[in-house]
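hi! just following up on the protien thing from before. the input was this:
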Amino acid sequence: MDPTATGRQVARFAAAGVINTLIDYVVFIGLSWLWALPLERSWIAKAISGTIAMANSFVLNRRWVFRSSSGGLRQLARFVIVTLIGTFGVQLGGLLLFSALWPAPGHLAAAVVNAMGLSRWLPEPLVVRTVAFGLATAASMCWNFVAYRRWVFPPDQAPAAPALPITAARA
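and the predicted 3d structure came back as:
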């Protein structure tokens, strides 16, 4: 694949990722608020929001990002495996790390929000969750792109063109 085509594919992947992340985030924050979850229970809302975003992600990645039309159930199974690792391993692990085990980046962001006088509208738990969500999502998106491109939706394996043109021998 040429670098320009790869760049366009990365751009489509990023756009699909933004759409999926917005779906994931809105559901995550909505459930966290609706159920009044403490920070150490944020994983409950994330597990549900990640599942909803996963279904949307398969459709966008298969049809638009990687433009795949083959693979059937095998492709779906591979997508689910990679996405489960990305969502419940990389992203959920990152969320747990940055919201409960080491929330320092979120607390730093909350201090900035507080210094700006915005903590009334952006309370510390929301800021910590949002920072944790963003860091975990970035790690997950890197994992997903590489795994989707190489294993789930690999480019067609067309035979390579010969390096030199074949010419008929003259007698």
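Confidence is low (pLDDT under 50) at residues 157-166.
Residues 113 and 122 are 7 Å apart (CA to CA).
cheers
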